[in-house]
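Our preliminary data section would be incomplete without showing what the modeling component actually yields. Below, a chain of 98 amino acids is followed by its predicted structure, encoded as tokens that our downstream tools consume directly.
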Amino acid sequence: MTIRRLAVVLALIFLGWIAVMALVMRFSDAAPAAVVVLPSEGFVERLPKDAAILAITPVSLTLQSDLPGFAKRLYARGALLVLPAGLTGCLPLPKALR
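Predicted structure:
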């Protein structure tokens, strides 16, 4: 396998993972928070009233809301990509963290 082929395969795996995470966020409310990647200028002013800002970086916003359909409302206000944040992963939480 050449390095170019390996790079293409790894890029496709990464893009597939991002797509799956975006679909999970769009069609379920399983994540306790959302990351908006590359928010547009003025996006913060258009946030839903129930959105709480948890973190701001130059390339993303981490937000939280307790109301259903949060990702859908973020997309409606101009978000380009919304990913889940705060998921525990595939393994259950240890009893000490519950």
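Residues 3-86 form one domain. The chain has two helices and four strands. Preliminary results of this kind motivate Aim 1 of the renewal.
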